[in-house]
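Q: What structure does this chain adopt?
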Amino acid sequence: MVDGSRADLRRMDQEQNSKYKQTLAFMMLIIVMLTMITVTFLNPIFMKGQIRTSNNKAVIVRQVDSHFDTLADLIGAKHESDSNLLTIQQAQPIADHIIDYSLGIHMVRFNSTSLAEQILNDIDESIDKGASSDAQVVRKKLLRQKNNAIYFVNRAFNLNVVTLGANIAVLLFVVNIIIVIVTIIALVSLIREMKERSSIKALIHDITASGMWAGFWIILISGLLAIIPVFFNVEALPLAGVGYLLEISSGVFLDFVIIGVIIYILCAIPWQITTAN
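A:
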């Protein structure tokens, strides 16, 4: 009976230890993923740098130009449908202002008039004599609209959707920060509890094992998200701007994969050292 009780205790201890490691791995995954998302996708400085990479410049031109085409149709400006009206130099300021409006820390947005005015100003300043003749026609017709120009820009660039996205982004930013802080507190508490039940060597072994699992899931999740634009035409997705965001984000997810590999390797070394012979 004594031997049976000891076996039951060992089994219960192993099950508890396994639950500890699973919970620890999940917490690490949450902290790392939410932190990376917050400092990249929800960071206007990072995203403005991301759209300036060689791979993403063409994506930005296509996105902004498609809205500029819609604007041309709304105001009745004739243009060639198969050619780009804007260059990267003309599309970049518009994209920058949309990013600044959408991301970062800001109050809840209720209207997009200020953004529409900025885009209208970008069109006025960037489309000069060196621009395409079709783009110049759109600019001239737009300026003649006077008070109605803001309305046409708002409608052509789906700025109501941009405003909704800006509010969702700032909500995600705040929620991410809160979740990361709460998870770090819970993580420290869990490690202290584990420390009371095991030696330092066993604790390091369990923590690094959880870190390896967290790194593995970061690699898997980020890798799958990175290859989506390779196998699917994400620009055809019906949700406004989601396809373009996935295409722009592909390179960022590859960076996440690298971070996951680094975490895995850094945890694998002490895990192997502390493995019982």
